[in-house]
Design goal:
globular, about 625 residues, 17 helices, alpha/beta, Glutamine Phosphoribosylpyrophosphate, subunit 1, domain 1, Rossmann fold, 2 domains, single chain, eight-stranded antiparallel β-sheet, seven-stranded antiparallel β-sheet
Length: about 625
């Protein structure tokens, strides 16, 4: 989940690296650092300089103002801690025993303990708690061996040393390496962790994600798994894991919005909540352009023949994406009549369901780089590739906000949710975009499977077209109400969220948002489960937020809410205004809509409620502690 940025060219690199890292800070902000090499005309080699600081990138920026460093070659890193506490010692870059090689890494080296022991037996003293430090140490030993055999100190030697060391590493990682004795060389590599190369004017870049390259170039080349690249002032050389030279043309990266402006909003998260009506309208214009209820009414990149083959669906996701998948599973199963299961991606690899034919496996990841989800999808493909049966049918589909991601490149079919760049670590508009993708799939399957009447399909389509306007009204109303009552919950320690049916995943998502940004313990439950244990927690200090939408479980949710009120809990409702809503102490009112589309609306007050509590507490809403936007480690 860490961010890597590197550059080699004719300009001073430290300011360029800082600019790149600012656009990657969503990937981690526990600590930051950079290393540059300053070339001396009086010496064929260069001098390596490093600066590191604990905490957010602003601390590193302030340090560089006091103690600047120079050099036209450099690498930088913003960290999400995996091994070792977030302090200056554990911050990247890490150096070898000679102090001449610097490495930054994103990912995890799974066999680092064994490699650490072998290094210590060779007299190498490790000074950090990280798995990363073994990499420069191993490279340093390999270079020492190569120079002892008479090889020259240059970029090719560094490249060869890195290639040799990579064969020793087990894990998921991307790295960037520089060496003071090769001041015209930057070596990078990836293994199941994202890294993209950038082609500028007289300079070349590497970055963990394309937004970091905005302002530098739009010409990019994503590294494939197990590839290594050598960047010099003259160009880029690309090699596969066997050392064979690769020739692949770069491309222009696309994206409707690659640099975000907070505008007049206090936080990016609030801005992104306000952007949800636009997200919904863009989705409707793109995927639901016609009033026709035919199979062509949803303009998804999925063929009718594929849909007709599918008998069951399995969805793999993590976190917020999994909650969207749960809404999707309810729709696909209950409305479209397709048997659907949702799995934690992190658990799927270790307890996968039996392999069966005519299955569609859907991977959901807003970044398209979620390590657990990608690993589960790859494993599932490998399992099914082993089946030697010409009648066996298996397909994969990705749902993501990033068409330039690993998920999009690896899937046969991809749905772009098109939510635009999202800076806030706590997902809001991308969650809405993911849910909308499942509404589109539901219409597609319902039409082709003929599980619903033409009238029912048309009603759902028309209801979806009303959502953008409804979102505008909801956001305006509940922004004001949430801000007004936020102070009542600043000292709250525990909150319970209740929902049933299609809104149970929204209860989970509401609880997750509150945990993520306000650090209040919150838990979502199916409302009927309240009396099977959680009710023991209730008193006047534990608020209960109940999602009650007219439909098949409406009366039961109201009854469950009464059980909480009888235990003196402060009861907050997300429900239409009416006589039944009188039981709530506070009401986030929503319009009376079809239960099918209610999750698109009920999530809004929960997002704003969490936001305003966190903002009132003075917390860093956009970059909550211990989290990162793109989860690239398992």
């Amino acid at each position: 989940m860490c961010g890597i940025f590197g550059v080699i060219g004719s300009r001073e690199s430290s300011s360029l690296i800082l600019d790149g890292l600012r656009r990657l800070e969503y990937r981690g902000y526990d600590s930051a650092g950079l290393a540059t090499i300053q070339y001396s005309r009086n010496n064929q080699f260069g001098e390596l300089f490093t600066r590191k600081s604990k905490g957010k990138l602003i601390n590193l920026s302030n340090l560089l103002q006091k103690k600047p460093i120079q050099g036209h070659l450099g690498i930088g890193h913003t960290r999400w801690a995996t091994h070792g506490k977030p302090n200056e010692t554990n911050a990247h870059p890490h150096l070898d025993f000679s102090g001449q090689i610097a490495v930054v890494q994103n990912g995890i080296i799974e066999n680092y303990r064994d490699l650490s022991k072998s290094l210590q037996l060779k007299g190498i003293k490790l000074i950090s708690e990280t798995d990363t430090e073994i990499i420069p140490q191993l490279i340093g030993l390999e270079i020492e061996n190569m120079l002892g055999k008479g090889l020259l100190a240059n970029g090719k030697t560094l490249l060869s040393a890195v290639q040799k060391v990579l064969t020793l590493l087990d894990g998921t990682y991307s790295i960037a390496v520089i060496w003071s004795k090769a001041p015209d060389a930057l070596v990078v590599a990836r293994s199941q962790a994202p890294l993209v190369l950038g082609f500028g004017e007289g300079e070349f870049f590497c970055a963990s994600d394309t937004p970091a390259l905005v302002g530098f170039t739009r010409t990019v080349l994503p590294l494939e798994d197990n590839e290594v690249a050598l960047l010099t002032p003259l160009g880029i050389e690309l090699y596969d894991e066997n050392g064979n030279r690769q020739r692949r043309a770069p491309s222009l990266f696309k994206g409707t919005e690659l640099f975000a402006d907070k505008k007049s909003f206090r936080h990016f998260m609030l801005k992104e909540i306000y952007e949800q009506p636009e997200t919904a309208q863009l989705w409707i214009d793109r995927y639901l352009p016609s009033d026709s209820p035919s199979e062509n009414s949803v303009a998804f990149p999925i063929t009718k023949s594929l849909v007709e083959k599918i008998d069951q669906i399995q969805i793999i996701a993590c976190g917020t994406s999994r909650h969207a998948a749960m809404v999707g599973a309810y729709l696909l199963e209950q409305f479209a009549g397709v048997r659907t299961n949702v799995y934690f991606a992190s658990e799927f690899r270790y307890s996968p369901p039996p392999v069966s034919s005519n299955t569609l496996t859907i991977g959901v990841s807003q970044s398209g780089e979620t390590a657990d989800t990608l690993a589960a999808l790859r494993m599932e493909k490998e399992r099914r590739d082993l089946i030697e049966d010409s009648n066996f049918s298996f397909h994969q589909l990705g749902i993501t906000n990033r068409l330039d991601s690993s998920l999009a490149r690896e899937m046969d079919n991809v749905i772009d949710i098109g939510s635009g760049i999202e800076i806030g670590v706590a997902a809001t508009k991308t969650f809405l975009g993911q849910m909308l993708a499942f509404y589109g799939l539901t219409l597609l399957f319902a039409s082709n499977k003929q599980k619903r009447s033409t009238k029912e399909i048309l009603e759902l389509s028309n209801d979806l077209r009303l959502v953008p306007k409804q979102l505008v009204d909801l956001i305006k109303k509940h922004d004001a109400l949430s801000k007004e009552i936020a102070h009542m919950f600043v000292e709250t320690k525990d909150v319970i969220f209740l929902g049933r049916g299609i809104n149970y995943p929204i209860a989970l998502e509401g609880a997750l948002k509150l945990k993520e940004i306000s650090y209040i313990h919150a838990q979502g439950y199916p409302a009927g489960e309240l009396k099977h244990g959680p009710i023991a927690l209730l008193d006047q200090h534990v608020p209960v937020i109940s999602i009650a939408v007219p439909g098949v479980v409406y009366e039961k949710v109201l009854s469950n809410s009464q059980e909480a009120k009888a235990r003196d809990a402060r009861l907050i409702g997300v429900a239409p205004n009416g006589s039944e809503s009188a039981i709530f102490d506070e009401l986030f009112s929503i319009p009376k809509v079809s239960e099918w589309i209610s999750p698109l609306l009920t999530v809004i007050p929960l997002q704003l409620f969490s936001y305003h509590i966190a903002a009132h507490k003075g917390l860093d809403v956009d970059q909550p502690r211990n989290l990162a936007k793109s989860v690239t480690v398992e």
